[in-house]
Design goal:
Layout lengths: L5 H27 L10 H55 L6 H22 L19 E3 L5 E3 L8 E2 L6 E2 L5 H5 E2 L2 E2 H13 L6 H53 L3 H26 L3 H5 L1
Antiparallel strand pairs: 1-2, 3-4, 5-6
Helix pairs in contact: 1-7, 2-3, 2-6, 3-5, 5-6
Length: about 300
């Protein structure tokens, strides 16, 4: 009788090699906390993790833009509120100047007060943002509103401000407003109109006729300011919504990444213990089988 042990040895060695490879892999997963140590181990999962990395990088850039846009819009909204208050003050002064019972000297005082309102509006229009740039101006850094001291005003703002990307698929938002849009209505230049009226009142305008003629234009100008402020507020709300969506998407992506990538340590320890037990038993069995000979078999 001839007994060949080559096949038995080969099978046992292959079995032990596979068990040792599994044990090493489990030990690595426990040590690193990751299921995959190289992309070749699971190409599909590696590709998905790479996509997560890209989305995380994009989300970081979007978050930076959202934080900046949110801050600028919040500042713009607050400043617009102050501009609204000044427009309300201007309306009160113009309505007082339109009263028949006032004399020229009274209207001169109102004219001085109106000039003060104009100066405040110019100052608010030239507010700097958190970066030190004109909040309602252009990227060039020039003042948004220039009082030419001749009753006219120059607005150094672009026709429209550039938008910043805040999400995928080209989602973007305009982070602030232009002084030109704030102070220009269907009735023309608001500051120039107020300046002309203030000059007339300071000159002793006797009847209040010019003040009465300006009331309609002033209402239109105030409505324009309210419209712009509402637009700013709507964009700020949109930024808040997008920030929440971005945060939720990042959390969901992190959870899915953890499911694909992170090691379940408890399960890994259980599998390692089981693998080491089987390996030990296999090694013991192989050791006994390797000692067999024909005489042992015949006994």
């Amino acid at each position: 009788m001839q007994i060949s042990s080559n096949l038995l040895y080969d099978r046992s060695a292959a079995r032990m090699g596979a068990l040792m490879t599994t044990a090493t892999k489990l030990q690595t997963q426990i040590a690193t906390g990751k299921k995959i140590s190289s992309p070749s181990e699971n190409v599909a999962v590696a590709q998905q993790l790479a996509e997560f990395d890209r989305k995380d990088a994009d989300a970081g850039a979007f978050k930076t833009n959202l934080d900046l846009a949110g801050s600028l819009l919040k500042q713009a909204d607050g400043t617009m509120g102050s501009i609204t208050e000044q427009m309300q003050r201007a309306t009160e002064l113009v309505n007082n100047a339109a009263t028949d019972t006032l004399g020229a000297s009274d209207r001169k005082v109102i004219g001085d007060q109106l000039q003060s309102v104009i100066a405040t509006l110019v100052s608010l229009g030239n507010t700097n943002d958190l970066r030190g740039q004109p909040l309602f101006g252009s990227a060039a850094g020039t003042p948004a509103v220039i009082d030419n001291k001749d009753g006219t005003f120059t607005y150094n703002t672009a026709p429209s401000l550039s938008e910043v990307p805040i999400g995928e698929n080209g989602l973007s938002i305009q982070p602030t407003e232009t002084a030109a849009r704030i102070f220009t209505s269907g009735k023309g230049d608001t500051l120039a109109m107020l300046s002309a009226l203030a000059t007339a009142l300071q000159a002793g305008e006797p009847t209040g006729e010019k003040a009465r003629a300006a009331i309609d234009s002033l209402k239109t100008a105030s409505d324009q300011v309210s419209t712009v402020q509402a637009s700013v507020g709507a964009r700020a709300a949109r930024v808040d919504l997008q920030q929440n969506l971005l945060t939720n998407a990042s959390v969901d992506r992190a959870e899915l990444r953890s499911t694909l990538e992170d090691t379940d340590v408890t399960q890994a320890y259980t599998e390692l213990s089981k693998t080491m037990t089987i390996l030990s038993a296999t090694q013991a069995s192989f050791s006994k089988l390797s000692q067999l000979s024909l005489f042992t078999y015949l006994r």
